[in-house]
Write a structure and sequence with these properties.
Number of strands: 5
Helix content: 25-40%
Number of helices: 5
Largest sheet: 5 strands, antiparallel
CATH class: Alpha Beta
Shape: elongated
Structural class: alpha+beta
Distance between the termini: 139 Å
């Protein structure tokens, strides 16, 4: 065998050895393979949907006392626009106190201390009733045990004059005794508690310097 043939066989054997080693290291690929995924620069994060925040909503100071969207609610809202410091809850608290003061003054026959809270027509009507009682020799002694309910019944507002009216219903528990000129009880019982319902309307020009509401009408 010639030396050239021997060299050729040796080279062929080395080639087969290298091919087998490559298969063991790299493995084999059969069929279609997806191309390698190349890294991409970080994509911008998806923005969350932005929601518009609506400030405000129903005014609980109004909707706690009247139905939202009602004529009374619109009137109260207009009053607040005309006088930003107006608060319905505070008004009703004041109305309760005014009711007790005015009612007891009227029953006892002396409205001098509360006349400033009365519309002139209401004051005149009270004066007439008090005068009639005195002419008959009657006196009334009343005590309010408690005002159990204060309900805002209706509200109206005139945008031109800025005059607002609020009608309030009261439910009070009280004792009432009527005596004649001789001091004899002709009606009532000091130990008997009765419930009385009254509907009063208060009026005021919103934004005026005078903060007092006037009692402009009474009813049941």
């Amino acid at each position: 065998m010639s030396s050239s043939l021997i060299q050729l066989l040796v080279l062929a054997g080395i080639a087969v050895f290298l091919i087998l080693r490559l298969k063991n290291v790299l493995g084999t690929r059969d069929g279609f393979e997806k191309p390698p995924v190349t890294s991409q620069p970080d994509a911008p994060a998806r923005k969350r949907p932005e929601f518009e925040v609506i400030e405000g909503g129903p005014d609980r100071d109004i909707t706690d006392h009247v139905e939202d969207g009602s004529d009374s609610a619109k009137a109260l809202a207009a009053m607040k626009m005309a006088e930003p410091g107006f608060d319905v809850g505070e008004f009703l608290s004041g109305a309760r106190q005014a009711y007790e003061m005015i009612f007891l003054a009227f029953e006892r026959g002396d409205i001098s201390d509360v006349r400033g809270f009365l519309d002139p027509d209401v004051a005149d009507a009270f004066d007439q009733v008090i005068a009639e009682r005195k002419a008959q020799g009657l006196s009334i002694q009343s005590e309010i045990v408690g005002v159990r309910d204060v309900e805002l019944y209706r509200a109206t507002f005139d945008r031109d004059s800025k005059y607002g009216e609020v009608t309030v219903r009261f439910l009070a528990e009280m004792t009432t005794v009527v005596t004649n000129a001789d001091g004899e009880i002709v009606e009532g019982d000091v130990n008997e508690i009765k419930r009385q319902r009254d509907t009063w309307t208060f009026g005021r020009t919103m934004g005026a310097d005078d903060p007092n509401w006037l009692l402009i009408a009474t009813g049941e």
